[in-house]
Each structure stands twice: as structure tokens, then as C-alpha cells.
Amino acid sequence: MKSTDETIVIKAPAGTKARWVHMAAGAKLSEWVVQQVDRPANKTVDHPCPKCGAVVITADGPFWQCANCGLVA
Length: 73
Fold this sequence. Notes:
- By secondary structure, the protein is of the alpha+beta class.
- It has one domain.
- Helix content is 29%, strand content 15%.
- It has helices spanning 14-24, 29-38, and strands at 43-44, 56-60, 63-66.
- A 3-stranded antiparallel beta sheet has the order 1-2-3, with no helix packed on it.
- A hairpin with a 2-residue loop joins strand 2 (56-60) and strand 3 (63-66).
């Protein structure tokens, strides 16, 4: 039987990959990347991020994450 899995190749700078590995926090990097792709689109908020001042966030259930600096609240 033929597998239905597809292969996607992402070429990213070493610094970006290192940040992704850190953000994956022990999960398989490939699974973490797929989760990020499946997440809802970023949203603009009324109150800027207290750390960097950005107004674009990513919703993650009851929490949010700054799309610029990665702060989670």
C-alpha cells in the first residue's frame, strides 16, 4: 500500500531553525512546524504587547503569543 504522507522541504537560515527548535520545546520539529501552519491567522489587538509594543498576536486557546517577540500571556 502506498503512503499518503507528503514531504515538504523548508530551507531556513540557521538562526531561524534554532529559534524554531527552541520554541518547539522538545517536540519533533516537523510536528511543531505543522502545528504552526495549522494555527489560526494572526490577529491585531487593541493593547500592544507589554514587552515589545507589537499589536499582532497569535491566539492559542485562552492564551496569546506576540507574533514579534514571542511573549506568551
